[in-house]
Amino acid sequence: MEISNYSKQQANAEAAEAVAELRRSKLAAELTNTELGSEMQVSRQSVSKKFRNGDMRLSDFIQIARLAGDLPSSILAKAEAKSALAGKEVA
């Protein structure tokens, strides 16, 4: 894929996949939104909204990944691989 042909829509789709992968990591670590909220000093509802939107601040992404015991880079790599596979299926 050429950089010049990379659209905002593609970026949003990859961001949503990264957040979905982060959610899977959170579930595998058996972390609740209440527990994450307590650690992040925000409400459970705020944590839920971060996941529901499919887009979040990078600092929140990193913190949640670390709290789930995962590396942010590995979560992004999994999301990127899934996005690449989805792109090949469409082409």
Supply the key terms:
5 helices; 91 residues; mainly alpha
Can you walk through the features of this model?
The protein has helices at 8-28, 33-40, 44-53, 58-67, 72-90. The chain has a domain at 57-91. With 91 residues, it is mainly alpha-helical. The chain is globular.
SSE layout:
Layout: H1 8-28, H2 33-40, H3 44-53, H4 58-67, H5 72-90
Spatial separation of the terminal alpha carbons: 11 Å
What composes the largest sheet? none
Q: What low-confidence regions span 5 or more consecutive residues with pLDDT below 50? A: none
Succession of helices and strands: HHHHH
The chain-level mean pLDDT equals 89
Based on secondary structure, the structural category is mainly alpha
Task: Report strand %.
Answer: under 5%
- What integer value in Å does the Rg equal? 14 Å
